[in-house]
Amino acid sequence: MKLIQIILLVGLLATLISYFRWFRSAAADKLLIALILLSGIVFVIFPELTNKIAHRLGVGRGADLLFYLAIIGFGYALLLLYSKIRALEKKLTEITRKQALDEVKK
Asked: What is the pLDDT of residues 54-80, one digit of tens each?
């Protein structure tokens, strides 16, 4: 098994575990965004660095490596958005039920 396969599997498993635990905080989100932006800046300034990292991980090109990592990132973002939507739906249901009960009591 190539190193990139291990990294991608760990990333996917981390996404899955994070989703099932619903473990999020504003500080963790800010740290993750800062890390992604800093990595992007470094890769723009030193584009050959992506190729070097890709070759060490067993990927042919740096662009392919970034694509694989983007897939994990997009999957994580989708799961976070889904969890937010579910939480909002739950709150909306609770508010609607409370309002309906209050109207019946009047």
From this structure: 999 999 999 999 999 899 888 888 887
